[in-house]
Amino acid sequence: HLGRWLLLPLWGQLAGCRGIQSALAPSGTAAREIAALWWSMAVGAFIIYVIVLGIAFYAVRIRPERHGSPAGYGLILGGGVALPLVVLSTLLTYSFSLGPTLRQPVASGALQIEVIGKQWWWEIRYLPPGQKQPIVSANEVHIPIGEPVEILLKSADVIHSFWVPPLAGKIDMVPGRTNRLVLQADQPGTYRGQCAEYCGGPHALMAFYVIAETPKNFALWLEQEAQPVKDRGSPLLMRGQRLFINSGCGTCHTVRGTPAGGRFGPDLTHVGRRYSLAAGILPNNIGTLAGWVAGNQILKPGNKMPSFNTFEGEALRTLAAYLESLQ
Ligand code: CUA
């Protein structure tokens, strides 16, 4: 009975322990160190908590007559000062010792990925060694497994924060600066990340996915991502592309290989094969594509794209089919 109440402070924290965005389900080198540190901190704090409560209980209920006696001061000094000092110093030393592990060096000449935080999405630029032009994408970071990948973090407007709890720690993206983080994933998987610094309106809806693949699959993916869109095969998709251009979508969005070359919103060249839509908040399919175009201000209020709610049903379906075909 008493134990249940003693555990109360832990319940809230343990509620967040599962799933693809958990720091306590680590899948990478840095994340594993951070999870180990978290558990040591939790156990250390719990030990202090139990001992201090035990001493308080003893002082109040069992030996109230000993208040002010030398033995009472012993309890205060031992349980209230010495014990927390020893436990907290040990934990502090341990946490500082992790620094070098978390700032892992990366082989020079390896792939770099630039992530630029924008209100309220992420521009992703792949910089393979020896290549001048970056390969531009959005809201999804692909990495090869089993090797450290350097992520260069920037911001185009306000402070954002890049955090993929299962893979690494969290680092702010500060305008005018380039911060650096190393991601390393052990096995192929899909990990969710979240902007972890309040950046205005739909900050809570600024998420992304990290997709870790075998080096072979990653190379294949990157090669396809670098391509412009191919010829739109069917009349439906041709109509969709015309609609996209004529409605002004290309003023803000780029679809490489077409006249759409806007730089304000996410690059949509391969939007159809992304895992999610709208910075990690919706599954990606023809229905959510149509819903996003027509009703994005309801789905993500305050985002910088207007709701194109004037499209007739058929036009909307055609446009969504075109976007889905951008594989
Ligand atoms: Cu970007 Cu919060």
Structural write-up:
The protein is α+β, with helices and mostly antiparallel strands and 327 residues long. It has 3 domains: 2-102, no CATH class; 112-226, Sandwich (Immunoglobulin-like); 235-325, Immunoglobulin-like. The protein contains 9 helices and 12 strands. It has a 5-stranded mixed β-sheet with strand order 3-2-1-5-8. A 5-stranded mixed β-sheet has the order 4-10-9-6-7, with helices on one face. It has a two-stranded antiparallel sheet with strand order 11-12. The longest helix has 34 residues, at 29-62. The model has no long low-confidence stretch (mean pLDDT 88). The chain crosses the membrane at residues 38-60, 72-96. Belongs to the cytochrome c oxidase subunit 2 family.
